[in-house]
Amino acid sequence: MKRSIKRLMAGFTLVELMIVVVILGILAAVAIPAFTRYVKRSKTSEATGNLAKIYQGEVSYYQASAERVTQASFVNAAANPGTAPSSGKYAPNVAAWNATGWREIGFTLDTGCYYQYTAAGTTDSFTATANGDLDGDGTLSTFQRVGAAAGGEIQGAPVGITEELE
User: Facing residues of 154 across strands?
Assistant: First the structure.
């Protein structure tokens, strides 16, 4: 009886502790990369959401310009921020979004952003682009949405994505 009580109070053996350490290591090796992919994917939702807003602004501007002038056109908006972010978030700069082009389509960001946005418009089409570098390796992830006027109707393509999690 003494011996069984002593054995119950002895604790874990070294082998049991090592098995637990190995199991925890395996779980960490699987969970950490999955978590970083999840964080990057959540940041890409900024680009798709903002491209949808730019698309709607371009369509609205085109339709309004068709009512005002004989030749309707889409808007050109310079890249903003000036360079693509590199593994960080740009600080908010509301004044930069008041520049020609962005103001006309009603697009502005009052918070920081992970992507650089451009809107290249002509009289019959436009391309809205978001470029970013989420992991800082110099490879840009690019999101693009194209719209074109055909026969008075605006046809939009789905968002094209290159290197989504870069």
Answer: 149
Peptide bond between residue 85 and the one before it cis (omega within 30 degrees of 0): no
Q: pLDDT tens, 44-68?
A: 999 999 999 999 999 999 988 888 8
Residues 119 and 105: their CA atoms lie apart, in Å, by 10
Q: What is the pTM of this model?
A: 0.80
Task: Provide the pairing of β-strand 116-121 with 77-80.
Answer: antiparallel
Angle among Cα 158, 97, 124 to the nearest 5 degrees reads 40
Task: Quote the tokens at residue 91.
Answer: 């600080």
Are residues 130 and 113 in contact, defined by beta-carbon separation less than 8 angstroms? no
Please state, in angstroms and rounded to a whole number, the distance separating the CA atoms of residues 84 and 26.
36
Per-residue pLDDT band at 165 (split at 50, 70, 90): confident
CA distances (Å), origin 112, targets 3, 25, 90, 127:
67, 36, 5, 23
